[in-house]
Amino acid sequence: MRYRWDVDDKTVVAVTTGAFSKVEVEIDGAKVESALKLQRTSSQNFPLSGGRTAEIKVTPVVMGAPTIELRVDGQLMVPTGSEPITCPSCGAVTPPNDRFCAACGQAMPAPETYMLAKRTREATVAIWTLAVLFAIFGVIMFFVTKSQTADVLDKLAAADPNYSQTIDGTVYTVREVRDQLAWAPWNVLMVNAILSVVMVGLAIWSRRAPLAAIVIAAATYATVQVANAIIDPTTIAQGIIVKIIVIAALLRGIQSALKQRSASSAAAAANG
Amino acid sequence: MADDPAACAACGHKLRPGAGFCSSCGRRIGDTAADAADAMAAPRVADPDSRFTQNRDALYRAGLLFALLLLSFLVLGWVARFDRSPWPEVICDGADALIVLGFAIRCRAAILPLLRLPRASAGEALQLGLIAAAFVGVLLVYFAVLECLGLPIVSATGDLTRAGWGLGPILLLVSVSPAIIEELALRGVIQSSLDEVFGWRDAWIIQAAMFSVLHLSPLMFPSHFAMGLCFGYLRHRTKSLYPGMALHAGWNALIVLQEMYG
What we know:
Mean pLDDT of chain A: 83
Order of helices and strands of chain B: HHHHHHHHHH
Largest interface: A-B, 53 and 53 residues
Mean pLDDT of chain B: 84
Number of helices of chain B: 10
Number of strands of chain B: 0
Largest sheet of chain A: 4 strands, antiparallel
Structural class of chain B: mainly alpha
Oligomer: heterodimer
Radius of gyration of chain B: 27 Å
Number of helices of chain A: 4
Distance between the termini of chain B: 90 Å
Largest sheet of chain B: none
Strand content of chain B: under 5%
Order of helices and strands of chain A: EEEEEEEEEEHEEHHH
Strand order of the largest sheet of chain A: 1-2-3-4
Distance between the termini of chain A: 41 Å
Radius of gyration of chain A: 27 Å
Low-confidence stretches of chain B: 40-46
Structural class of chain A: alpha+beta
Number of strands of chain A: 12
């Protein structure tokens, strides 16, 4: 992964992370010696033109991409993204590290806000991922359940439909068992389809209300895991790595979106 | 004193050609140095850290209560695999009641005003009554459609009637108790806590979503989400938990009577 900061019109700092936790640093296109590592928190100072000092800090994140920050003379820099930064008031395209919009004078969001927005976007990606996973899982389990119930349905085909049996205190007839088995694969498909649609709705809503959407997605996903654990405790361990990654992304997203919201409501209160 | 067009008069930052404001201090180009000094003399104060802590604590409170209620459902589900008698549910309800009471006492400043009788004009009461009637009608249609499609709906009274329970105890366990506990938890503690962070509209939607997923059945998501919205709206309009409790208990009682005598 490559990170780039346009510190000013003439100074560019770039960091490239590669295999084996390697971190390469370039200043104005020239590679410089770096002792930074991805697997532990580390920081290093580099001299910039004009007597300034750049500090690059690497902070590993559990089950996520590490946080790489650049500070020039103590001020956090905004990384240059694929999309230009625009003023929230007048929409004018603004260089990443301007503190005020040159077109209207409105204060630009603090650099920390852009870092938080990145974590919030990662949580939105996690929600889209859940939507896709639920859809795929629903289709797969539809066919799996159908093949599992096909044998039993064949055996019950010749049985007397009115024959009944008491199981755990409940009386079931052959007809009722056949109906439940016939519906089982459609039930699985519908349940996962509903969950997938819910996640798509939340991912779309997260553009307007990221914190609310991520909170509901996290609550829904946690509940689904609990429900699965009740039905079959062995499912807790299935896909455990993916579950941990998703939950970590959602929790980080909640924290970041909460910080963003708190910062903007504090700024709104200060601006009157 | 005229500004040097190449540098800002207030902070000395190099200006861009064509810029109307300094990108470092926000001062309008062309203001005198005195104007700039006045503008710089009134720093804006904001405290995002304390607001974050406040919001985080409110969110943590709502999330913890939700997690504890979810945990009690997990325990009940596991126990029910081995013991189909109603007593595990009774014990779980009792534990939920204690948990919710603890949180309600912790948030008593927000909860106590909601435990006053609602004050509504005749017109408002009629409007809310119509909303409640429409809500009941929509839910009846929804469950009728599920039944027509042959989709499995968990029975609320099956285990209780098999255990020989009469109508009175069943209504207490299935209608009255959940209405009080869930309204106090979702529309009381959780909606009030979320109100502090999100404002009433988003808090209303989130508590309804939490209420729907807490019932652990995706087929019930739409119906219980609608219930959560309706009860939450009654709480918001009347500033009281009692209308929601009454409607919730009434709906659950209707289900009980339908299952036992329908």
